[in-house]
Amino acid sequence: MNPNTEGLLRDTKSAAESLGIQVQVLEVRTVADVDTAFQSAAKGGAQALVTVQDVLFTLQRARIAEIARKRRIPTMSGETGFAAAGGLMNYGPNITDSWRRSAVYVDRILKGAQPGDLPIEQPTKFELVINLKTAKTLGLTFPQSLLLRADQVIE
Questions:
Q1: CA–CA dist 14, 8 (Å, integer)
Q2: Angle, helix 32-43 to helix 61-71, in steps of 10 degrees
Q3: CATH number at residue 72
Q4: Half-sphere exposure of 42 (CA within 13 A, CB side)
Q5: Under a CB-based contact definition with an 8 Å cutoff, are residues 55 and 68 in contact?
Q6: Which of 60, 65, 87, 122 could covalently link to 82 via disulfide, CB atoms 3.0 to 4.6 Å apart?
Q7: How would you label 74-93 residue by residue, b for 16+ Cβ within 10 Å and e otherwise?
Q8: pTM score, two decimals?
């Protein structure tokens, strides 16, 4: 498992438990594991799927979105671009903004700042993107209040 996801998984399980939702963890380490994970999710009666931010999921986002639509499993990701690739929705840090912020750090370092002296920053800009075309395919609707809060709605 990606060590960066351990905390996220722990928080997800805790939040799900407080809502009475059962979490089924499906490990995906290779491209071939994507199909197996969806088979396991369907076999386990999964009603939705959430992918974490990971380079494998970024590279496979269109394929994951396609499989999710075919299996009729609503799927969301924290990865920018997932909804644009056909996924139901994505919510997470704005990657473009994060890259811009990292450029500021590079500039400071090139001007002589010591990397260890620079403060650690957490993302401050998050984006919610909803794909209504995918929602319609899955027979889902979103409350108008959520659509109004979305940064982007794909029709």
A1: 10
A2: 30
A3: 3.40.50.2300
A4: 13
A5: no
A6: 87
A7: bbbbbbbebbebbbbbbbbb
A8: 0.83
Spatial separation of the C-alpha atoms in residues 25 and 109, rounded to whole Å: 40
> Is 109:122 a contact under the CB 8 Å cutoff?
no
Cβ-contact 23, 46 below 8 angstroms: no
**Tokens representing 46?**
């999964």
CA–CA gap between residue 37 and residue 141 (Å, rounded)? 26
In a domain? residue 9: no
C-alpha 80, offset from chain centre: 7
Tell me the C-alpha distance between 62 and 109, whole Å.
36
Per-residue pLDDT of the chain (155 residues; tens, 9 = 90+): 667 778 888 888 899 999 999 898 888 889 999 999 999 998 988 999 998 888 888 899 999 999 999 999 999 998 889 999 999 999 998 888 888 889 999 999 999 999 999 999 888 889 999 999 999 999 999 999 999 999 999 99
To which residue do tokens 């075919």 refer? 70
